[in-house]
Design brief:
This protein starts with a helix and ends in a 10-residue tail after the last helix. It is about 75% helix and about 0% strand. Helix 5 packs antiparallel against helix 7. By secondary structure, it is mostly helical. It is flat, with a radius of gyration of 19 Å.
């Protein structure tokens, strides 16, 4: 009950942070930006407390002891929402972009909203195949990478809007509220450059776990295949951005294609995946 209240509290605070972020986007009132950060910070605090209570309930089953509760859809979505909010908070505190919240925070609120509204929060003993130390590493690393890529998508979206505003004969006030193209382009590149090795490392750890469990590192199931395609798009982005020296829409569109594949990996491929069907509650 307490975990549910804390999760709902975090969801409402993330939603309030979204409203403050859009208020800042429309007015550039510094108070709205401060409120956004306050709401996100309080939401993260409630979220962490809720995760802690879930951990206590999860560890009440002796066979679950020392494993993290990310073995079902509720656990995966709530962790991804927490990682997304924490990554945004970290970037915002250091960069003070303000405007980024309108493009990123809705995803944090949506992930937690889907979890509290539609996913089953019940905890149960882990299946024997999941009782591995890899459960504490492989999914956590991948979802942390997903959260960072969502932040990169928000930056890329802001970049496209800014570019359109600059090329417009009559740019709106929004043009003066968004960071410069160079700043957005550099931030987008840095986030993806840091995150892609994390994604690849998470995939390698998943292959090692699969090899230990079944003697086969890779089975080309839909989730594994889509994850490789996702990594391929982000690698192509880095090649275009840092090797070919391209700027502007082309590398941004490639990074957005990677983001679309990432969503398909997490949500779409989940429905038909064999090795990863436990996340869908099957």
């Amino acid at each position: 009950m307490a975990e549910s209240i804390l999760s709902w509290g975090a969801f409402l605070l993330y939603t309030a942070a979204c409203a403050a972020a859009f208020a800042y986007l429309l007015t550039k009132n510094a108070r709205a930006s401060s409120l956004m950060l306050t709401f996100v910070g309080c939401g993260i605090a409630l979220h962490v407390l809720g995760f802690g209570l879930r951990l206590v309930s999860f560890w009440a089953f002796p066979e679950n002891r020392w494993y993290l509760p990310v073995n079902n859809y509720f656990g995966a979505l709530t962790y991804m929402s927490l990682a997304l909010a924490a990554a945004f908070f970290s970037i915002e505190v250091r960069r003070h972009l303000g405007i980024l919240g309108a493009f990123v925070l809705p995803m944090a609120a949506l992930s937690l909203g889907v979890a509290v509204l539609s996913a089953d929060p019940a905890v149960a003993p882990l299946e024997p195949k999941l009782r591995s130390y890899w459960l504490n590493i492989h999914p956590m690393i991948l979802m942390t990478a997903y959260a960072a890529f969502i932040n990169a998508f928000g930056v890329a979206l802001a970049l496209l809007i800014q570019e359109r505003q600059i090329k417009s004969r009559k740019p709106s006030e929004l043009c003066y509220r968004l960071p410069s193209l160079d700043e957005l382009d550099a931030l987008n590149g840095r986030i993806i450059a840091v995150t892609l090795p994390i994604l690849v490392g998470g995939l390698a750890m998943g292959a090692a776990w699969a090899y230990q469990a079944s003697g086969r590192a890779w089975s080309w199931d839909p989730k594994e295949t889509m994850s490789l395609i996702t990594a391929g798009f982000y690698a192509e982005f880095l090649w275009l951005r840092y090797v070919s020296g391209k700027r502007g829409r082309t590398p941004v569109y490639v990074s957005m294609a990677g983001f679309a594949c990432m969503l398909l990996t997490f949500f779409g491929a989940e429905l038909v995946s064999g090795r990863h069907d436990f996340l869908g509650g099957k």
